[in-house]
Design brief:
The strands form two sheets. The chain has a seven-stranded mixed β-sheet, with helices on both faces. A five-stranded parallel β-sheet has the order 2-1-3-4-5, with helices on both faces. It folds into two domains: 2-141 and 265-295, Response regulator (Rossmann fold, 3-Layer(aba) Sandwich), CATH 3.40.50.2300; 145-264 and 298-325, Response regulator (Rossmann fold, 3-Layer(aba) Sandwich). Helix 3 (78-87) crosses helix 4 (98-107). It has 13 helices and twelve strands. With 326 residues, it is of the alpha/beta class. The radius of gyration is 20 Å and the shape is elongated. The two termini are 33 Å apart.
Length: 326
């Protein structure tokens, strides 16, 4: 029942496997592939994607159909879904995450694809070039994996007296592993003791927080991945229950009660994917659309959570914040 309520609250999104809906023949079909879950955390992202489509002149159910495929962190399903979509009469596929983009790239060289990735899409082999991606793929990159050092620096400002900091990473995510390496390099350069914990299941997350408490680790960097994003509320609840200051990748974490985040705007990136999908529906070729990179990063701090953790945040840090949640 709760599952159905989530779906209804998200505007009738379908969860894999998809029930094929009736549609008018002239309407272009957009295949929407996400490793996330269709929950409240995904709602503003989907709305941002629809806004981008609207900027390009397309409105869902009016002159375009969106077929939603949600993996809920089970990324092993993505290759099968990508193959199915490649065989269907879809006009464009939007793939959210590196693993989704790779699955679609392996499935089709003809259907236009717009991706969103936190990796460098050239380094991970999704496109040949950012300025001229070539082939049937283009998209948006957060390049968030390179921000691990900045997140470590911000967390040290929040808890300057903490000796050991942990990183929670997803071993199945190239984005998460890239960010982990970035944090490790920064910690080594600063002489910062670091504990690495891996998690790709709910039980892994629970075990990681148990280890954090047992090892008296004072703070946590969460290396973002589709799986971590789909477990947002669990991560926030465990950090609060165990009184562990944590920094995350996206604004929706502190907005939901997490302490702090630093990264590119996820909503703006989803909007840009929507704009590109709409441009392709109008006739633009993916190879003519350069891969977009973020131009602004946002620091978001939840002061209420800081007070609950007994933290006295520096005025300088608060002044730097793009948003302070009271």
């Amino acid at each position: 029942m709760r599952r159905r309520a989530f779906i209804a609250g998200l505007g009738g999104m379908a969860v894999w496997p998809l029930t094929v809906r009736a549609q008018q023949a002239p309407m272009p079909v957009i295949g929407f592939m996400s490793a996330r879950a269709p929950n409240d955390a995904s709602r503003p992202l989907v709305e941002a994607f629809r806004r981008g489509l609207g900027e390009a002149g397309y409105v869902e159910a009016r002159n375009a159909v969106i077929e939603y495929y949600w993996m809920e962190g089970q990324t092993e399903r993505l290759p099968m879904i990508a193959t199915e979509l490649a065989r269907r009469p879809v006009s464009v596929i939007v793939a959210f995450s590196t693993v989704a983009a790779r699955a679609v790239k392996a499935a089709t060289m003809t259907v236009p694809v717009v991706f969103l990735t936190g990796d460098d899409p050239v380094m991970v082999g999704i496109v040949a070039s950012l300025s001229r991606p070539s082939g049937n793929m283009t998209g948006v990159t957060f390049v968030s994996a390179t921000l691990g050092a900045k997140r470590l620096e911000l967390l040290r400002e929040v808890v300057p007296s903490v000796e050991t900091i942990a990183v929670l990473a997803d071993p199945n995510s190239s984005e998460s592993q890239s960010m982990l390496r970035d944090v490790q390099d920064a910690a080594l350069a600063r002489g910062q003791p670091l504990v690495v914990l891996n998690a790709s299941t709910n039980s892994d997350i629970d075990a990681a927080f148990t280890a954090l408490v047992q090892q008296r680790t004072g703070a946590l960097v969460v290396a973002g991945s589709p799986f971590m994003g789909s477990r947002r509320d669990r991560l926030i609840a465990l950090a609060a229950r165990n009184a562990i200051p944590a920094i995350y990748q996206f604004r929706d974490f502190p907005a939901a009660g997490g302490l702090i985040s630093y990264g590119a705007s996820a909503e703006d990136a989803y909007r840009q994917v929507g704009v590109y999908a709409g441009r392709i529906l109008k006739g633009d070729k993916p190879s003519d659309l350069p891969v977009l990179q973020p131009t602004k990063y946002e620091l978001v701090i939840n002061v209420k959570t800081a007070k609950a953790l007994g933290l006295d945040l520096p005025d300088k840090l608060l002044a730097l914040a793009d948003e302070v949640i009271e």
